[in-house]
Amino acid sequence: MAGATNILRNLKGDRVIWAIMFILALMSILVVYSATDKLAYLHKGGNTEYYLLKHSAILLFGFIIAYVAYSLPYQVYMRMAPWLILISVPLLIFTMAMGVDVNSAKRWLSVPGIGLTFQTSDFAKIALVVYVAKVITANQETIKDLQKGFAPVIIPVLVICGLIAPSDLSTAMILFVTAMAMMFVGRVRLSFLVTLMTGGIILFSFLVTIGNFFPQYVRVGTWIQRVRNFMTGGGDNFQVMQGKMAIANGQYFGVGPGNSIQRNFLPSSYADFIYAIIGEEYGLVGASFILLIYVVLMFRIARLVTKSPKAFGSILAVGLGFMIVLQAMANMAVSVNLLPVTGLPLPLVSMGGSSVLVTATAFGMILSVSRYIEGLSSNEA
Amino acid sequence: MYILLSLVVLAAVGIFAQLVKVNVFEGEELRELIDQSYIVEKKIRGERGTIFADDGAILAASTPLYNLRFDPHAAGLTEEIFREKLDSLSYYLAYYFDDKYTVGAWHDRLEEAYDRGDKYFFLKNNVSYPEVELLRKFPIFRRGRNGGGFIADRNEKRAHPFRILARRTLGYVKEDVKVGLEGSFDDYLKGEEGTGYMLKTPQGDIPQKNLENITPKNGSDIYTTIDVNLQDVVQNALLRGLQYHDADQGTAILMDVKTGAIKAISNIGKVSNGWAEVYNYAVGTATEPGSTFKLASMIAMLEDGYVNLQDSVVLNQGKTQFYDKEMVDASPHGLDETTVRHAFEISSNVGIASLVDKHYNHSNKGRERFVNRLKDLYLHLPTGIELRGEALPYIKEPNSAVDQWSGTTIPWMAIGYEEKLTPLQMLSLYNTVANNGKMMKPYLVRDIMNYGDVVKHFKPTIISSRVISPKTVVKVQSLLEGVVERGTAKKLKSDYYRFAGKTGTAQMDYKQKKAKHRYQASFAGYFPAKNPRYSCIVVIYNPREHGYYGSAVAGPVFREIADKCYILDPDLKYPLNAHVAKLDSKKLPSWQVGYKDDLVKVAQEFDVPVKDLANEWAVFKTYNDVDSLFLLNRKMSKKIIPNVQGMGLKDALYLLENRQVKVRFKGNGKVLKQSIRGGTPAKGQTIYLRLG
């Protein structure tokens, strides 16, 4: 306990970001406990504490990882970047071939021994962001050049996203957009980015074509169905309807923690649709608060970046932060029926091992950067 | 950077706007949707109370049973899953549920059900909860009702751990048909219905605690006066009697004399496949009772002072004429004249009928007087037992146009015809005689309890504390004892206890002229004859084999019940030698040595006269020519080892150990031998005693 207080006292880095992380984790425990009620009855004979303890343990582990990541000087990540990418590619290929089938999407690798499944794309996300940040800053002089500056950035992005996309299009899209944003902040030529957009669209159509021939590898059917459901008013979609009913049931102040009714009907209420349960149990007020938290996170990162715009740290922080926030926005947009159903978790809130751990790592890295930048500005002052 | 920021803010605003839209503008509609589709109001029945025996054994209790069905087309069960898991489900069904079908047979049956579009495939009825829980673990079924089509409809079944024991008296409730105690106490047993709001989910209904619920109240429990052991005795005795005599049906009631509590009540009728409790004859059937009614006639005449037991009465060889009708005695006795007592004890129709005819049938007033005497005995009223459907007794009203009176009515009434009584009503009269003229209301329920608290307690009810005058009671008690000692029931007499009672043989179809008549054999009485504990009536309808007289058919059943009651009830245990307590020197303890006060007490206990010549220690002595025992003094010195032969171990130990002698002994009984002779100085030796 003394050690913990010591850590807290000496905690550097942006305290607001620390606080955001803490609030999200707290909210996560509350809502996951409530939402897994049904799972507990189905699989654990009504032992509701099972999921609570498991999830809390993962969160705790996440905080430890975040603390480690925060403690490391962020320059370490720069050196690790190529290796991370080199690991990611075979991992992703392996997952495509051998992965565990969950909800008819092959995104998980089962880790032998501990009975956890690991979503390899989560790992690849961080690897790619770190790598992109490194390349952009390293090639800052030649960044406007297509061959010397742009190509080294874009090729890994296309490869990784291309590998993730068949099984998990939304994650690939988030990653792609994040990479674009990083390049945008890193002053890559706008014309390149426009071309890249077009490239992305071409890649996507290519995937759809493949998917028509090999439906077992590419989930084109699901994508089309989801988009179609969304286009035809969304009301037909059971999941979306249940999510809306949950939010409506929450009214302004919510039905209170643990009193959700819709958790019984809403599929993946503890993961993809957790925001709807937040809306139900904590009402419009609670849901808006969580929304605001992610916006504040983005503002805090922007504040960091403006202090030292071209550094590796800043680009890294923007990349990781934007990725988190973008994913959060996408998740929430799905829950409120602004976007078609994607399957993206709400960062740090949804239940799910690798997603929580990776998000925590990202937070740790951002905090590591903020610790450095704070040190920098206090030195200047 | 600012462009990124504004994008995020824009997205956030969009999400917020949508939140508000869903919550506020579409909210009402969506919320209504929740209520409509998922919250249902359900009536919840309280659990029905239990019926207990007097000693707390469960006579009737509710147990939940389930009717199992399978819906292969349940909403959450896809064909894919069904086909995939069908094999393993069939395996489990064949091995752990119902091996009437092989794995393959189950597979085919389920597949056929699927193809037929069956939504309610029969699995099994009346399945216990543990078995349902087991089935819930099977493949497909474990997915629940919506996901796996597993349907377990709960219904409450009444379980009777003692099977047919007092079944009809316990009764049942089916819709509006209410029978027996279940029917009479339905209001208490059924509890109160509650309402609950249930959330329908794929996993089953979940009660909603935050909505207004009316909790159902469980029913109260009923504690009856029935004693399971006695009930068993009565039922078995009756059943044996019915089988032996190949009768149509029969009933037997055992009542506690002092309180009127019914300890056992059995009704058995012949059904196509054996014997069952199908109707409560004891309470629901009023018939012409026959000779057991002569008790009432006797009481009437004794109360009016018309007869003395020693008066003589003309029997005329057991045949006489009342107007146009001839009355004969059931069995030949060859007597022209006898005492009133004897006429009753041999159950002479002629004797009793002519006495009653002589004293009451001379005028309307006389007839009225007789009927009023019967009314004094409450024979015209139902007993008021807590069971539904008690048949009303029928006693003709004098001066009534409806009740067709004739000159023969009174003599036939006197011997138990032209009136109707239920077995219980008749028993009530005998119980009153046993209870020295105090009439108790028969009752079956002593307490209504709810969660261990007494809701209602039923005390024994005195209908009247003096229905019969003490003088008459003593006389009729001696008459009933006489029936067993010398009369029609003398073959039933027991050496071990005395009981009192009256036989009855009623012809059920005397109005028809047939070669073979149907009879109703009965025996009513009480035991022990002195300080009666139980009264009992046995009625057997239409015996076909081995005789038809009350004494031959119902009497043995009564005797068997009484015998078993003696075995079961320690209070009734009677010293076997009580009636042979005569002074007999050969059987007296001629050589008993011991502490004087103890010996005196023993002698007094057996009413043996004692000549006491002893101080502290004594020895019994008998002399052949003297009619009493002598207690001779035995001197015990403090310092020498006494002669303890013939003493009990208690006394021997006391004496020896007080003299510091260590005692070892073997066997039991009185001291036969001692290792150190009496008179030896005591100095801490060890003495060995042989008992025997």
Task: Explain how this protein is built.
The complex is a heterodimer of chains A (381) and B (692). Chain A is mainly alpha-helical. Chain A has helices at 2-9, 15-35, 37-43, 49-71, 75-98, 120-138, 146-164, 169-185, 190-213, 220-231, 238-250, 274-307, 312-335, 353-380, and strands at residues 100-102, 105-111, 116-119. Chain A folds into two domains: 14-71 and 238-369, no CATH class; 77-236, no CATH class. Chain A has a three-stranded antiparallel beta sheet with strand order 1-2-3. The model of chain A has no long low-confidence stretch (mean pLDDT 79). Chain B is flat. Chain B is built from 21 helices and 31 strands. Chain B is an alpha+beta fold. In chain B, helix 3 (79-96) runs antiparallel to helix 4 (103-116), helix 12 crosses helix 14 (349-360) and helix 12 (294-303) packs antiparallel against helix 18 (470-485). At the A-B interface, helix 3, helix 8, helix 11, helix 12 and helix 13 of A face helix 1 and helix 2 of B.
Structural features:
heterodimer; A: 381 residues; mainly alpha; 3-stranded antiparallel sheet; 14 helices; 72% helix; 4% strand; globular; B: 692 residues; alpha+beta; Penicillin-binding protein 2a (Domain 2); Beta-lactamase; 4 domains; 7-stranded mixed sheet; 6-stranded antiparallel sheet; 21 helices; 31 strands; 33% helix
Provide a quick synopsis of the model.
Chain A contains 14 helices and three strands.
